[in-house]
Amino acid sequence: MANYSHAADNILQNLSPLTAFLKLTSLGFIIGVSVVGNLLISILLVKDKTLHRAPYYFLLDLCCSDILRSAICFPFVFNSVKNGSTWTYGTLTCKVIAFLGVLSCFHTAFIISAKCCVCHYI
């Protein structure tokens, strides 16, 4: 990689066990809350018939997108931190996970802007 330096690699790998534990605990908490929270909101949106309107369909789409990002991208980051902040999955997997993360961000921005436009006219 163009920006790779050995000095930065040594700094990331020499973290204390407490720091690694705090990072892993935080990431696990973020993954769990994200998946469970978005799943609960999705179930509510599907079951409640009064919420079957355009703004809530956008919210359901955002929930599904966030569940996929949390279930697919975050576990790779979690394992990377667990392995001393080293990426052990290869360059193709790195590119695919990075693409999915960026795609999720742009998807979220697009859906929020679309929701603002649609809800303005409803």
From TrEMBL:
TM region(s), chain numbering: 20-46, 58-77, 97-118
SUPFAM superfamilies according to UniProt: Family A G protein-coupled receptor-like (SSF81321)
Record-level GO cellular component terms: plasma membrane
Domain G-protein coupled receptors family 1 profile: 37-122
Single GO MF annotation: G protein-coupled receptor activity
Primary site of residence: membrane
Pfam families: 7tm_1
Cellular location(s): Cell membrane
Membrane-protein topology: Multi-pass membrane protein
Alphabetical keyword list: Cell membrane, Disulfide bond, G-protein coupled receptor, Glycoprotein, Membrane, Receptor, Transducer, Transmembrane, Transmembrane helix
Function: Orphan receptor.
Name of this chain's protein: G-protein coupled receptors family 1 profile domain-containing protein
Species of origin: Cebus imitator
